[in-house]
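User: Sequence in, structure out. Go.
Assistant: Echoing your sequence, followed by the structure tokens.
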Amino acid sequence: MSIPTSQQLCEALSGDLNRPGAATVTKVVNDSARKTFTASLGGAVLEFPHKQPDGGYWDGFKFYGSGMRSKVRIKRTKVEPA
């Protein structure tokens, strides 16, 4: 299995955050300088590092305006074999 590029990870995260019936998330942005992916969710900012420790979940933080944050964990969609 090949190692996914940051662009492939960005697309996968965007797909998982924008599932039907979920809260509307704006486009996921790849901040390559900081090695993070960021997205906006109703006034909060979600931030996920490029390197994820768990293959089954996206682990990151949700920031609320002035810096208050909480951990966020979102289940990943399994990659279908080609």
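User: And one key feature?
Assistant: The radius of gyration is 13 Å.
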